[in-house]
Amino acid sequence: MLTRQRKQLLLKILDEEGQIVAKTLSESLGLSEDTIRRDLRELAKEGLLQRVHGGALPASPAQANFAVRETISTDAKPAIARAAAALIEPGQVVFIDGGTTSVQLARALPRDLRATVVTHSPSVAVELVEHPHVEVIIVGGRLFKHSIVACGAQALEAIAGIRCDVFFMGVCSLDPEAGITTGDYDEACMKRAISATAQRTIVLASPEKLGTAAPFAIAPLATIDGIVVSGKTDAALLAPYREMGIEVTLA
Prior knowledge:
Layout: H1 3-17, E1 20-21, H2 22-29, H3 33-45, E2 50-52, E3 55-57, H4 66-69, H5 76-85, E4 93-96, H6 100-108, E5 115-119, H7 122-127, E6 134-138, E7 142-144, E8 149-151, H8 153-160, E9 166-170, E10 173-175, E11 179-182, H9 185-197, E12 200-205, E13 216-219, E14 226-229, H10 235-243, E15 247-250
Parallel strand pairs: 4-5, 4-9, 5-6, 9-12, 12-14, 14-15
Antiparallel strand pairs: 1-3, 2-3, 7-8, 10-11, 11-13
Helix pairs in contact: 1-3, 2-3, 5-6, 8-9
């Protein structure tokens, strides 16, 4: 089998099965595991999949820039945002992450909600300018243009002094084995730091993010309290999260 044919076959299997286990696939195809792993490495360099321990997962489309991500899951994201907003209690200090679903969450906050929102996302802050009862605290730093959020040492220092009740985390990818991952090292550090100071961490996961992986680990799934997903998500896809004791909210 030619190299190009092998790679096309690997992508076909990944699309159909949602993952590749290198050892199992090498046995079924009669190819060496080294050959499979080499092909996976090359496909990962092309951005066609994400290498994980023992094989590969689909690459997350959420690694695209902000403008492109706004065109993905346009029906699911507002629904997820409304379900997340319903989890907020009056008087809480809430940290809202950056990202397109997070912007939808800011828009979905009830007009009579009295709370404090902390964010390092200018996009989220602007959405709350006209909200009559929400106090907004903006964390500053170097602007990471991909996600339109502040990051860096100044932002981390500010986060260390905030103890929020709940952190709504936006992610590139979520997978039972790969955990929570994103496409930028500094952004992963920021999300991990916010989560560490929050009483609860809830992940906002639009459909394209489930069962995918990105290069940089944020945290294992054991560190989060809940996920909010589309109500149309396959129950089998959500079963591993529920088995881990993670609260799953359907939007």
